[in-house]
Known about the structure:
This protein is an alpha/beta fold. The chain folds into 2 domains: 227 residues, Vaccinia Virus protein VP39 (Rossmann fold), CATH 3.40.50; 36 residues, no CATH class. Helices cover 33% and strands 18% of the residues. Strand 6 and strand 7 form a beta hairpin. Helix 3 packs across helix 4 and helix 6 crosses helix 7. It is globular and about 70 Å long. The relative contact order is 0.11.
Amino acid sequence: MSRPEDTLAADIHYNDSEARKYTTSSRIQNIQASMTRRALEILDLKSPSLILDVGCGSGLSGEILTAERPEDGGPHTWIGMDVSPSMLDVALQRDVQGDLLLADMGQGVPFRPGAFDAAISISAVQWLCNAEASDTSPAGRLARFFDGLYASLRRGARAVCQFYPKNDQQKTMITRAAVRAGFGAGLLEDDPNTKNVKLYLVLTVGGSAGDGRGGDITGVVDGMDNVDVLDSRPKAADDKSGKGAIKKGSKAWIVHKKEQMERKGKVVKTTSKYTGRKRRVAF
């Protein structure tokens, strides 16, 4: 089955007819509600909170946040952002209770630092893995999103992103971008090895060095049940001086520079076995 993100940008795919079809489908409503409740269970919020809904669409997840019972920590206040004007128009027609913002998450998360207590994203992050123009890259879009999301969450907050990776390469690309942004990260799989498998990226904004964790952001996720801890942050290579410096001009140095450029949205050449190899002297 073809994936919509492989053919069109999200704001084009979710036009007026697709937005209405998506919102009125009882099957989609049930799936969306189930995944949103699972995300809330993982967030484990103890009191009414301000939640960012990334890729909020027509507000199906937002309705679950608003309806959360007091004994479960709710009801919650939420702000939704989405790139599709048609989806947001349907949300307005349905008179959802959250505030709505038209914005492309691949260009960042435009809120003040520390504004939110938590964040959720249901079936949206995989759209960032497709470049929409020659001057953008999936790595750059992912970096801008996770950098902005990290900044918008208060210290100690959690975010849960349910997504459908196309393959293991996409899954790795997404999780590495989250870790590089500073998140403690873990992957949670529901119904593994079935066609109904659901993948959740569990993210935490770590505490300070004085909170007993020594500043180890992955320590926050480490205690959660059934979550595989991820930490793909690059470790500096040890040199003879013991300072862990990377030699300028080496392959590791070149790869590091490429990663920096990708995070800025630049298009760079693919790393290969020839990267960093010195040319022979021509006579």
